[in-house]
Amino acid sequence: SSYSVRVRTFDGTSTFEKVFTISINDVNEAPTDITLSAAAIDENVAANSTVGALSSTDVDTSAFTYSLVAGAGDTDNASFSISGSDLKITASPNFETKSSYSVRVRTFDGTSTFEKAFTISINDVNEAPTDITLSAAAIDENVAANSTVGALSTTDIDTSAFTYSLVAGAGDTDNASFSISGSDLKITASPDFETKASYSVRVRTFDGTSTFEK
Fold first, then answer.
1. Whole-angstrom Cα distance, residue 136 to residue 189?
2. Distance of alpha carbon 207 from alpha carbon 129, whole angstroms
3. What is the pTM for the complete model shown?
4. What confidence tens digit (pLDDT) does each residue in 143-170 have?
């Protein structure tokens, strides 16, 4: 920030010397980069959750102000806000609806600015099944033992492989009279309408992480 030099003057006969200090004035230099501490967030987090913290690269020591600005990469600016240096997503994200967002951010050091576009990725989080359906819920009396009543299927916004089982709980009265093979619900003995006209079973679907019962 400063230099020291010694200068001599010579008039042809005599000299004089003096030391000078040359000071360098500090001139503000513009920021050169913006970083985001995290550029991905899980789906289904609460509205106004923080994606990550913004920081600036600047050779000067400055206090920075951040804002969302128009320009290349600003496609999803309306879905975000900035609080201090935190980039926040305004609504709870859903991977199945939108898996990534693009925003353009400006940093301002009090004099100069720098802008940068960021891609925010949404992490796909497994969500529990929400329903089970049975393709047919009636079967003729006197069919052979182990006949298929119907095929089970699951409602789940994730694409998953499902495992089905008969489980204890409300409605499990006749579980012992049925079995499940893959996704097929089977009646273990030939039914007789005159003896028993309806059965109640409780089925669980499992997507590898979460379950639903019906």
1. 18
2. 7
3. 0.75
4. 999 999 999 999 999 877 999 999 999 9
How far is CA 166 from its chain centroid?
Answer: 34
Residue 214 CB contacts under 8 Å (≥ 6 apart), including other chains: 131, 132, 202, 203
Q: How far is CA 87 from the centre of its chain?
A: 14
Q: Which residue bears the tokens 């003096």?
A: 18
- Residue 162: strand, helix, or coil: coil
Q: Mind listing the pLDDT tens digit for each residue in 127-146?
A: 999 999 999 999 999 999 99
Give me the DSSP letters along 61-103. Answer: ----EEEE-SSTT-TTGGGEEEETTEEEESS---TTT-SEEEE
Burial per residue of 48-86, b for 16 or more beta-carbon CB atoms within 10 angstroms, e otherwise: ebebbebebebeeebebebebeeeebbebbebbebeebb
Nearest of 101, 97, 103 to residue 82 by alpha carbon: 103
Query: Look-up: residue for tokens 């400006």?
Result: 106
In whole angstroms, what is the distance from residue 9 CA to residue 86 CA? Answer: 60
First CA to last CA distance, the chain: 76
Amino acid at position 178, single letter:
F
